[in-house]
Recover the amino acids of this structure.
């Protein structure tokens, strides 16, 4: 039973909301949020501690507060948010290594919940139609957020072996989307013209931002060990998503993906990750039986409704202006 | 408010009228007239509207029923009814509901036989069931072809997908000869090639789904393959490059299949529930069952060939 919970990465949207929800749980004695910057919204009775998880001071914090549950949401999906790819990798991989090393040394830690991504399964034409948790990628992701998440999952498995008394849940989330969150996909759908891979139509699965938050909170309350896929029901085809977005599309030959991304950068439009066109071409569907039966979580939004909520918010003008997506990326 | 540029109504109206005129022209050319033509045009317009607004559904495998029913089947039916005049027997051997694995012989240089079987089952089965076909990796890695394959209900010929489909009670079709079947020379016509490693039988055993043997006659004569330009095939990354009486000499005209008359016969189902599901891991059981299925298909092929009069009539 969670008594003292620590959440990493709380400066960002989803982690901030998880922190807020955990703070509302009367059975949890103490809720601590950790990041380099404070969370943007209210956090109720939760405490915020400014700390860098790449520093070994985290171990001391775990011991002092007698943290028994660590919720790791500090893996950053977009290099833009991190300040460039090099920094992103640093925070994601080295930050996680340091955090897990601290957890290993802290005898009070009993539970670890990690936010990972369904991107670890990759996207290729040889993929099984639906991925279950035991399967691994046919074409291993080579770079970016998915690659970092794969490494994170590897280190987490290492921790499991060295501290078998810690129960670890890894949530592999489908692409999170919704009215407020800003991701590579939402930037993509904001482009004036959408480059789509010619001759391919991927199957896309989405997870509404509210469901992403609720699934993390649910995981904290259970004792599940292992990986769990989390996604909304149903599938949206790339052509369907482009049609619903009511944007003109530009078919691009897959082998010209590098050229497309270079042009996007030169034109000052949002840079797309290397595997983006592959993802749109093949998509990726994950099986959510374990999510329902073992985690006991039912998403409120299907993939289609989640995507619609994002489009609707854009049309109603409810999305934050934030930074303009039409800005050249930092380091590649 | 987000500004989405809207075409003014005059433009939109002009575009729609042009499309309607084109559809009417196409319908009239296909021999439709009067209320039939009007219905066809209305249905086509509705289909286009659904495409443009994203108002359709795709399942986890990519199967798009609207696309298949509204666009693909009508086109395939022209071949099915008028070119190949397919005669279907034994449709009652397919279950009304629930899983079954249809195993058929493969021939004809391109996989027209699988498309015709799909139309045959949909049109002749009393419940208009959709056949979910298992295709080779190469299909799904190819642009356009892979897209169409998924949209019409096909998926990878891999154990995971096959078992998943059978467990959900789908009708699954597999052509185990694969490229060896489609790419065999004319002199080997109707002689079944090796049936792979028996993965499909293992999937049926594990899910306890009955196996329905299917024999297809007529596909061999669509593109009689007289030779194989293997050097060209290697360069293009294809499993074979067919040389037929019409291709590649007549260029794109060579792509028109010869109008042979087709017969598709479904045999008595072979049950798999007399073995426990664990028998799927027993090679002896798998090989025996694979041979049995192969024999049944070959036997029915010879019967059909014996009773067939002319190839084209």
């Amino acid at each position: 039973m969670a008594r003292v919970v620590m959440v990493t990465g709380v400066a960002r949207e989803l982690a901030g909301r998880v922190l807020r929800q955990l703070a509302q749980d009367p059975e949890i004695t103490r809720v601590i949020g950790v990041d380099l910057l404070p969370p943007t919204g209210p956090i109720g009775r939760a405490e915020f501690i400014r700390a860098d998880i790449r520093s070994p001071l985290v171990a001391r914090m775990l011991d002092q507060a007698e943290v028994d549950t660590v919720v790791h949401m500090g893996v950053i999906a977009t290099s833009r948010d991190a300040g460039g790819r090099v920094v992103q990798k640093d925070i994601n991989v080295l930050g996680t290594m340091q955090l897990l090393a601290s957890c290993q040394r802290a005898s009070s830690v009993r539970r670890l919940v990690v936010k990972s991504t369904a991107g670890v399964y990759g996207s290729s034409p040889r993929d099984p139609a639906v991925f279950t948790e035991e399967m691994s990628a046919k074409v291993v992701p080579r770079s970016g957020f998915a690659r970092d998440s794969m490494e994170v999952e590897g280190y987490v498995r290492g921790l499991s072996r060295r501290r078998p008394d810690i129960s670890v849940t890894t949530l592999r989330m489908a692409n999170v989307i919704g009215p407020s969150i800003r991701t590579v996909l939402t930037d993509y759908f904001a482009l004036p013209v959408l480059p789509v891979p010619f001759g391919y139509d991927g199957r896309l699965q989405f997870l509404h931002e509210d469901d992403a938050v609720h699934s993390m909170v649910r995981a904290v309350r259970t004792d599940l060990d292992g990986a769990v896929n989390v996604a909304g029901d149903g599938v949206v085809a790339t052509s369907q998503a482009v049609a619903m977005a009511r944007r003109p599309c530009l078919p691009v030959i897959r082998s010209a993906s590098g050229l497309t991304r270079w042009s996007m950068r030169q034109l000052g439009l949002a840079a797309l990750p290397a595997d983006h066109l592959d993802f749109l071409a093949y998509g990726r569907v994950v099986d959510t039986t374990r999510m329902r039966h073992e985690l006991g979580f039912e998403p409120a939004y299907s993939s289609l409704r989640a995507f619609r909520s994002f489009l609707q918010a854009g049309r109603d003008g409810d999305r934050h202006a934030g930074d303009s997506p039409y800005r050249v990326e930092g380091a590649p | 408010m987000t500004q989405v540029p809207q075409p003014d109504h005059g433009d939109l109206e002009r575009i729609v009228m042009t499309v309607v005129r084109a559809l009417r022209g196409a319908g009239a050319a296909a021999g439709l007239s009067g209320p039939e033509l009007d219905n066809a045009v209305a249905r086509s317009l509705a289909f286009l509207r659904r495409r443009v607004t994203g108002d359709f559904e795709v399942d986890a495998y990519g199967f798009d029923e609207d696309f298949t029913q509204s666009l693909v089947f009508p086109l395939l039916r022209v071949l099915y009814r008028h070119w190949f005049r397919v005669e279907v027997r034994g449709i009652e051997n397919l279950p009304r509901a629930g899983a079954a694995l249809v195993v058929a012989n493969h021939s004809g240089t391109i996989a027209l036989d699988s498309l015709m079987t799909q139309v045959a089952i949909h049109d002749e089965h009393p419940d208009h069931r959709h056949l979910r076909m298992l295709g080779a990796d190469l299909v799904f890695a190819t642009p356009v072809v892979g897209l169409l394959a998924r949209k019409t209900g096909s998926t990878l010929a891999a154990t995971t997908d096959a078992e998943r489909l059978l467990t959900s009670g789908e009708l699954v079709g597999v052509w185990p000869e694969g490229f060896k079947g489609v790419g065999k020379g004319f002199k080997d016509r109707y002689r079944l090639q090796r049936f792979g490693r028996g993965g499909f039988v293992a999937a049926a055993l594990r899910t306890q789904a009955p196996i329905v043997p299917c024999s297809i006659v007529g596909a061999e004569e669509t593109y009689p393959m007289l030779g194989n330009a293997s050097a060209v095939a290697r360069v293009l990354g294809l499993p074979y490059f067919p040389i037929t009486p019409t291709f590649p000499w007549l260029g794109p005209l060579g792509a028109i299949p010869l109008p042979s008359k087709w017969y598709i016969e479904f045999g008595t189902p072979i049950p798999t529930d007399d073995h426990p599901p664990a028998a799927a891991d027993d090679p002896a059981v798998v090989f025996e069952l694979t041979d049995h299925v192969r024999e049944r298909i070959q036997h029915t092929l010879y019967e059909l060939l014996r009773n067939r009069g002319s190839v084209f009539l």
Observations:
- The CA atoms of residues 215 and 265 of chain B lie 5 Å apart.
- The interface with chain A takes residues 1-2, 4, 51-54, 56-62, 64, 137, 140-144, 146-147, 150-151, 155-156, 158, 160-161, 164 of chain B (CB under 8 Å).
- Residues 283-307 of chain B form the longest helix (25 residues).
